[in-house]
## 1
Amino acid sequence: MNSSSTPNDPTRRTFLAAATTAAALSTAARPVSAGLWAGGSDLLKVGLVGVGGRGTGAAEQALNADPGTELVAMADVFEDAVASGRRRLSRMFNKEGQMPRVTAKDEDCVAGFDGYLRVIEKSDVVLLASTPHFRPLHLRASVDAGKHVFCEKPVAVDAPGVRSVLESTEIARQKNLNLVSGLCWRYHPGKRATFEQIRNGAVGDIVTMQCSYMTGGVWDPRRRPDQCKSQMEYQLRNWYYYTWLSGDFNVEQHIHSLDKMMWAMNDEAPVTISGSGGRQVRTDERYGNIYDHFDVVYTWASGVKAFARCRHWPNCENEVEDYIFGTKGRVDVMSHTITDLKGNVIWKYDGPDGDMYQIEHNELFAAIRAGKVINNGDYMSKSTMLAIAGRMAAYTGQRLTWDAVMNSKEDLSPKQYEWADVPVPPVAIPGKTPFV
Ligand SMILES: NC(=O)c1ccc[n+]([C@@H]2O[C@H](COP(=O)([O-])OP(=O)(O)OC[C@H]3O[C@@H](n4cnc5c(N)ncnc54)[C@H](O)[C@@H]3O)[C@@H](O)[C@H]2O)c1
């Protein structure tokens, strides 16, 4: 395995410059067109950036989606993550007597902050599944290099990141590159049928929406001395708890519910956002600087409101639900059920279930083979911004406009990507934390 060195000045800007150089070389060497694989016989080389739980899952789905795929490269900031992901995927896909599907050579299994460049260079299709903070950088480098992308959610943690992703979306569009989002519910058969019903007027005009993502939380962060040689390493190993890495949990997790609200609104953005939140249970320093509960109200120009709440409190009632209320009835999105105003069920999905994670990849690879283009960039950017806007409203305690959040200058990046100290900003205090 190759452990790539960190550049001397590994700022966001230097990485972007390096990415652009690699991109220029790569597109010049092998121009990619939408119809390149239309014959259906060529090998499609898949690369993975972020070899964690979701990344290895996405690689598995990519290899299952199309028999002509091989995993040719992988990168993670941590060498142990690359090694264990490579072992796991090799066990699954390199069976005795069969052609191996995980063919990444040692030199293409890279650890370090700039490993993504190697993956992009080697691949036709790049799976982006690192922690959310790095997504804008990885995505830009991928589309600049003319590569098709599977892009996990959320796609950014701040507004500059979202604006960068919108630009990358446009670059992908101009180059006829597929850009499939990990907002997986949009690929779920039951949800697709339910939203089709909404589009066809089953509940009349939408009046209000309510979504909840209330669970017990994620892993308990512990400092393992063998794994935490610097603050940067500690924070990356426990990325969920740092706003600059995850966006906070209403962005990392609740985005799935918020995305359904945007789906119902045909991806029209709300005009104002207000909310509250805080840390009631996860107060210890080891929980970084994120909140453990949020309550946000989004208001659209038409007056439609979405009430969105999420929390990470163990030993409390869990609730993951989405409701859409219209002039003629109500949708329970998670159970794919529509009732009239008196509560009578007027429609219920009874089609096949289907694995949405697999379907995303099936559709991505089918599109590439057919020379077609799927581009989910606009909605994945807007839904990410919706979630970030909720965080900003709760952190500041202010009512914010969509225009203001879209133009926010707040950049959560650390000064440098290096194995050193990364200061942790204080937990936000509404009324004191400014909107930037
Ligand atoms: N669509 C879904 O339902 C779903 C489910 C789970 C996770 N996710 C998303 O997938 C992403 C990864 O989540 P996960 O659960 O796999 O977390 P994870 O911690 O298991 O994996 C993330 C990996 O990314 C690596 N990484 C961090 N910075 C990197 C960088 N600069 N370059 C390369 N690798 C880097 C980490 O070391 C880690 O191995 C997150 O954005 C998460 O929101 C989506």
Note: Residues 190-351+384-406 form a domain with the Dihydrodipicolinate Reductase; domain 2 fold (CATH 3.30.360.10).
## 2
Amino acid sequence: MADYLEKDYYEAYDPNAKGEFIPNTKIEVIRSEGRGHFTHALFDFDGTFSLIREGWQTIMFGLMFEVLKSTPNHESDEELTKFIDTLILETTGKQTIYQMIDLAEEVKKRGGIPLEPLDYKKEYSDRLMVKINDRREGLRNKTIEREELLVPGTLDMLRGLKEKGVTMYCASGTDDHFCKEEAHLLGVDEFFGDNIYGALDDYKKSSKALVIKNILEENNLSGEVLLGFGDGFVEIEAVKSVGGYAVGIAIDEKNLNRQIDERKKSRLLGVGADIIIPDFLDAKELITYLF
Ligand SMILES: [Mg+2]
């Protein structure tokens, strides 16, 4: 079991790797080996195709800043800002509870007495829900089109993979019931069927690595048939570590202007992303290339 606890970020590949662009696209190919025979695909949820929780980093930053600033031995605002920015960047893709365990540890390091990580998580979730409730309600009562809260090109990508006969899975660090509900609100649940896995209260029993292990074992597959998509290091690392091929989405979620978020990109490259894209608007070319 211990092997499937979520790991911290570590650099195993060159974070500054340069690739080549497929002509007339924003698809940057770092490594071309390993394509052509994918039968299964794993998607992360938030920031990979769902934009419902866009801005979560700001909410988490606010909470962490407030909590760490109230410790006896905290650093200057400037140093604290830098520290928390990096912490969030390097834990993107992990289950929220791990991020809150980190927060509690940092409180201790600064001479404070932390709350339980679960209490921090509850506070974070409540604050985030205030921010995203209009989006969820808008989707529910159809005043917001689902395309507005999907990473551009997502539906083309999912349809294209379905046409190729690929079995699709979704694994998320967001709580399981929210993840399933939001996939339904976005109308993408049909592509995944029962294969949507979010975080469980017993956090040691769920992880992206465990989802991948089960996919491979239950279907008696080797990792080379697995294609992964994600904006966080966790899913990219998990796909690469079983020998799969990984597409990193270095999306600028706020602006959606097809510009790459360079900091996200370097973290994704550091764990071995084989391709970097800003969104799925080049879905057709990407599928042609991958297969
Ligand atoms: Mg994500």
Note: The pocket of magnesium ion is lined by residues 44, 46-48, 93, 231-232 (CB under 6 Å).
